[in-house]
Structure formats: C-alpha cells, structure tokens
Design brief:
The chain has nine helices and no strands. By secondary structure, the protein is mostly helical. It has one domain (24-175). α1 (24-42) crosses α7 (151-159) and α5 packs across α6 (119-142).
Length: 188
C-alpha cells in the first residue's frame, strides 16, 4: 500500500548565497556530513574497537568528533586565526600544529562529558584519531582529484562567508593587509 507523504518545506533555506549556491546552514550541513564520513573511515581503533566507548555510543562519539572539528575550525576563524588555518591547509601537514592540539583537547573534553567516559580514555581516543583525520582533511583539500573537500569551501563554511578567496588572503599580503581583510570578514 502506498502512503502519501506531505512534502517538507525547508524553512532555514531562505536565500541562496553566491559561491556554492547554498545558504551557510546548508554549507555547514554538507561539511559536517563529509567530516562525519571522514571520521567514520578512521574510527576503527580509536572509537569502534575502543573498550572505553560502549558500542551503542560509537556513532554519537563519531558525531561529536566531527562537530568539534567543525566548531573548532569555526572558532579559530572567528578568533582571527584565518591565516593560520589557511596555512595549515596549504602546508599539507598538521604535525605539531597548535590548532590540531586545541582540537584534540576540545574533542576529548566533549566526548568525556557527553558520553560519560573517563578524561584519560577520551584524551587517548582524541590524540590517536584527530591527527589522522586532520591530515586526511588537509590532504583532501590539496588533492585536485578529490572533490569531497576544497580549501575555499572549507574556509567558506567555517567563516560563514560566500566566495571565500583563499589565494588573495595569503598571496603577497602583509600582516597588516591580512588584519584588514580579517576585520572585513567579521564585520570589525
């Protein structure tokens, strides 16, 4: 028997922005979905096979990790660290990067508090998973054959600005120029 389902109106999608043609909320959703997939691909030992995280909480842990990565990158951008973010993505490596260190700490804190696991277990999970996920994210943004993430799209998502031009941010700019650009991005 077929049942008629009433179409759902997407109220939060009010106007299209240039760039991808999506609103910022939709860009965030798309990026979070991609981050969740990336975390899932790497969650084996750190989450799924981790005895400290109950099996029924694996997906919740994966979601928390992805959300904290997104929120952490967004927080870095809002805090004026756009050049550091862009440099991290353009360098191709996250080894000893202070942004990744902060993400590890934020993820561990949130996983421990939301899932009720020990701080030590959460820190161990985050320390083993985050560098791998962030390295893959950076590699994907630098791979012209991989369209799952691109640097402009990532930066646009975390800054909330459409048509984010990363090239003009870093190319031939002085710190004063970049400061002015950052002020414009955040309405300062």
């Amino acid at each position: 028997m077929l049942h008629w389902v009433q179409p759902v109106k997407l109220k939060h999608i009010k106007k299209k922005s240039p760039g991808w043609g999506f609103t910022n909320d939709l860009k965030k959703t798309i990026m979070l979905d991609q981050l969740i997939k990336l975390v899932e691909q790497n969650a084996g030992t750190a989450i799924v096979q981790n005895k400290a995280i109950p099996d029924q909480q694996n997906q919740a842990a994966i979601n928390i990790v992805a959300e904290q990565i997104f929120d952490g990158l967004k927080s870095q951008a809002a805090g004026g660290n756009i050049q550091q973010l862009a440099s991290m993505f353009q360098s191709g490596s996250v080894t000893n990067n202070p942004i990744v260190t902060q993400l590890v700490n934020n993820v561990a804190s949130q996983v421990a508090s939301k899932l009720g696991i020990s701080n030590q277990a959460a820190q161990s999970m985050a320390s083993s998973l985050l560098p791998t996920v962030m390295n893959q994210l950076v590699q994907k943004t630098n791979d012209p054959n991989d369209s799952s993430f691109d640097l402009g799209g990532v930066m646009s998502s975390v800054t909330g600005k459409s048509n984010f031009d990363i090239g003009s941010l870093l190319q031939g700019k002085t710190s004063g120029d970049i400061g002015g650009m950052l002020g414009g991005l955040f309405g300062r």
